[in-house]
Amino acid sequence: MSTYTSVTDADRAEMLATIGVASIDELFGDIPAELRYNSELPLPAGRSEQDVYRELAELAAKNVSADDEISFLGAGFYDHYVPALVDALITRSEFLTPYTPYQPEISQGGLQAMFEYQTAISELVGLPVSNASVYEGPSAVAAAGYVAKHTNQRSKFVVSAGVHPHSIETLQTLAHGYGMSVEVVDLQDGITTLPQLDQDVSAVIVQQPNFLGAIEDVEALAGQAHDAGALLIAQADPIPLALITPPGEAGADIVVGEGQTLGNRLDFGGPSFGFFAVTEKLIRRLPGRLAGETTDQDGKRGFVLTLQTREQHIRREKATSNICTAQALNALAGVIYLSWLGKEGIVELAELLLQRTAYARNELAKIPGVSAGHTQPVVREFPVRLPSGKAEAVIAAARKAGINPGYRLSEDELLIAITELRTREHIDKLVATIKEALA
After folding, report:
1. Which residues lie closer than 8 Å to 173 by C-beta, 6 or more apart?
2. Are residues 307 and 350 in the same domain?
3. 161, part of any domain
4. Is the predicted pLDDT of residue 310 greater than 60, yes or no?
């Protein structure tokens, strides 16, 4: 944790004298008195440190520890283990405190970290160019749509219903602002089947694996999109990409996604980071920043900001994004996590998820009245249908047993997610609880 030391009265007097005002009141003299800070606010009297600590501890004790709940909740954010070295490194002052690396000559460490992050994302998604992160997954999808619009000047997006609902909503919001329509295509047995694409389609947008956990045939979907002159945008969960063909290798022009699973905890919903990768053809339309490798005048390896499309860097009318710096630390956590896993470790992790997910799916399907939400292959997440009208009883029984049974997709359907923190014993407890609730 960084510390803060307030200025002294002498410091304050020197600063006021330097700018030529006699007092704080004079400094804020142009602000109407009724709008200024009122020191007479009816606040309670101060309390001792011990009293404050005791009260905060009592409040904190009301929180439910993550260790107290067996969570099968996923739907975009997942309860993965984050190794201690992630916090140990990202809280170093050289990473925790810097802002945008405007001066590459004194920002080599930060720029190299960005460069290594970009390299890792490019290898993971199968595309040659990655930027230095964006805010999060849904806004990355919307930004990808904006790239597609400027690439081919068409007027419509065709979006799979298997794309995360938050991403669809964000795309619809931003697309409305730049005059684009959004057509959402329903799933068939859990996967995307595209309609005939017309010449108005700017991009087809899918998710891999999709929101229901099913593995999409990205290569076939990319072929259909390209035949119609459209781009293929894929939102991807990064960990399953260790086992399935990366979307970039399958023909996707843009691959984006939510990076929370890479070394970022749940933390009550954030912050996290989004990743964004493109083909070389689209590099000039890439939002955010791109860190590049170069050599200095002595021939030594160095790093610079190669591409900057933020409105702070170039003329506003030329900018393609206003991506700021807030997520660089979270992206750093992502590349530390990927480095910790290594190329073999991430495959082992994905295989573990695959095995435990298959076990959970098979065991739940044995319960009378419970059926699969679709028949497609999955890696870490899958829907199950409960007997009509029984969901409330199942959820209540699970909660009583200290289990979050998953995300409620509909009246009688749950989306169940598996991470390496969910053991076989946890899965057996979920199965037994649901079986007992339905008995």
Report:
1. 142
2. no
3. yes
4. no
Largest pairwise CA distance in the chain: 81
Vertex 205: Cα angle to 188 and 145 (nearest 5) = 155
Q: How many residues does the chain have?
A: 439
Rounded CA separation 384/15 (Å): 65
Residues 88 and 78 in one domain: no
1 in any annotated domain:
no
- Calculate what percentage of the chain has a pLDDT beyond 90: 76
Same domain membership, residue 231 and residue 119: yes
Whether residue 432 contacts residue 402, with contact meaning beta carbons closer than 8 Å, is answered with no
Give one DSSP letter per residue of 10-36, joined into a string: HHHHHHHHHHT-S-HHHHTTTS-GGGS
Residues 180, 308 within the same domain:
yes
Look up residue 117 and give its two tokens.
């992050």
> What per-residue confidence (pLDDT) applies to 1?
47
∠319-325-326 over CA atoms, to 5°?
A: 130
> Where does a domain end: 321, 337, 353?
337
Determine, yes or no, domain membership for 185. Answer: yes
Residues 6+ apart with CB under 8 A from 263: 82, 83, 86, 333, 334, 336, 337, 338, 340
Taking only the tens place, the pLDDT of each residue in 74-116 is 999 999 999 999 999 999 988 888 766 667 777 888 899 999 9
Last residue of a domain, one of 276, 307, 337: 337
Considering just the CA atoms, what is the radius of gyration of the chain in Å?
25
Q: How many domains does the chain have?
A: 2
pLDDT digits (tens, 9 = 90+) for 250-267: 999 999 999 999 999 988
Same domain for 429 and 288: no
Residue identified by tokens 């095995």 is: 355
Which pair of structure tokens corresponds to residue 33? 């008195």
Range of the structural domain that residue 357 is part of: 68-82+344-438
| 209 exposure class (CB count in 10 Å sphere: 0-12, 13-18, 19+) | buried
